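Student: Please help interpret what follows.
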Amino acid sequence: MSLATATTHTIREGAFGNGTHLSCRACGAKSPLGPFYACMECFGPLEVGYEFPTITREQIEAGPKNIWRYQPLLPVPVDVASFPNTEPGYTRLIDAQNLARELGLRKLWVKDDSGNPTHSFKDRVVASALSATRELGLKVFACPSTGNLANAVAAAAARAGIRSVVFIPKDLERPKIITTAVYGGTLVAVDGNYDDVNKLASEIAGEEEGWAFVNVNVRPYYSEGSKTLAYEIAEQLGWRIPQQVVIPVASGSQLTKIDKGFTELGKLGLVDATDYKIYGAQATGCSPVAQAFRDGYDVVKPVKPDTIAKSLAIGNPADGPYVLDVARRTGGVIEDVSDEEVVDGIQLLARTEGIFTETAGGVTVATLKKLIETGQLDPDAETVIINSGDGLKTLDAVADRVGPKVTIPASYDAFVKAGLQ
């Protein structure tokens, strides 16, 4: 926890909705709600704890067609929707019959989060972090990022009319650099990988007052936004939990919060508390969690990333140990796939379902395929996979594989000679 983030700002009543405290994920110690992110007892990570009132399906269904329909389940005030924000969420859940048939699955759905305002799931977590930033009286909206988060933070700050400062590795994909810089905030390229960028952000958060690094010192509130993926999947399936979910793993926060979301829905009686398995997907060039899972370890050994899946290239994932816990508790698996398999996965999803995913989605599709082929995933169980971003952000991954089949003169004869009838 940084003293620099602790301001004299008075937090209004109800600023964090039904959130009542922060709880340490390591030792369970409780802390008050505020600009805190590390346990004072053991320095473990903090997350938001709640006291939920009775919440009904009808109450949720009457809400807006974005994540604020789940306001009672998030650490945000009841009037959160009245403040300028990008209004993410309520993205498509696609019945992927073609892909299911090709892979030999009985029932497969794709939760397509490329439909969010900046075309990735990061708009969800950033919206939650923006609310906390405003309620805590912080003035600079910032993040270290592998790309998608940079887009989301810059866009949300522009919409809210506050200053943004975004830090990225200098070798980030060009489309992600452009789609961050276009929003007019301050974009800083750092000579290093994501873990170097994240270390710098942590140092700045510890020294600069009034800065909200969404995935550092505002992380307890930020990460809760990923729960809305679980809420939407369950609601879109007719208020039930799927039997299997395959999720890409970078920091691991998305996977652990989807699990938390399903658990909360069951406890609140919004769905039947049925069993489910959660699977994690990584690229082999940055697969510390998958390796720890295979080795039977409870800790994750950091690695130096070397993969085309840059949005998942976090060599020292903060939530890695908790990902292992979720996979083992639910009976799932953490698996990894090569860069070549990642590109195959991108093309497979595009060819079968008309969805152009970024490299992270290629990791997820390729991992799904591998899990089926190795007998680690039940092909007869209803399965959901997460498409976390848009392929237009990672064009280089497929650029040398796709293009015109043939080039012909502008004549019908040429068309016929080419055998295109």
